[in-house]
Amino acid sequence: MSRWLLVLVVALLSGCAGMSKVGPGEVTVRDSLSVTLDGAWNQYSIGLTRKSEVWTLDGLPLDRLVFHVGIADGEALAELPQRKDRQVPKYQTTMQAHEIVEMYEVFATHDGSSFQRQKLAPAPFAGGDGFRFEFTRVRKSDELEMRGVGYGTVRGGKLYLVIFEAPRSHYYARNVGRFEAVVSSVRIRG
Amino acid sequence: MLRRQFLTGCACCGLLGRSSTLLAATPGPLPARLERPEPGSDEGGLWSLLSREEERLKRSRFLLRDGALNAYVARLACRLAGDHCPDIRVYIVRSPFFNASMAPNGMLQVWTGLLLRMENEAQLAAVLGHEIGHYVGRHSLEQLRDAKSRTALGQFLGMALGAAGVGAAGSLAQLALLAGMFAYSREHEREADRIGQELIATAGYPPIEAAKVWQQLVAEVKAEAEWSGDAGSRSIFFASHPDPEERSQAMANRAATMNGDGGDPASAAYAGQIRGHRRQWLDDELRRRKAGETITLLERLLRQSDDGETRFFLGEAFRLRAADGDAARALREYAAAEPRSDCPPEMYRSRGMLQRQAGDTAAASASFQRYLSLRPDADDAEMIRSYLQEGI
Amino acid sequence: MSRCRCWLWLCFVVFLSLPVRAASLAEGFTRLPEGAVVLLMPLDIELFSVSAGGILEPQAEWTERAHANLRQAFLTRSSALKVNFMPLPGEGDEVEVVESLNRLHGAVGQAIAMHHRGLFALPTKEGRLDWSLGEEAALMRARTGADYALFAFVRDSYASSERVAMMVVGALLGFGLSGGMQVGYASLVDLASGRVLWFNTLLRQSGDLRELEKARESCDALLDKFPE
Question: Residue C182: inside a domain, yes or no?
Answer without folding.
Answer: yes
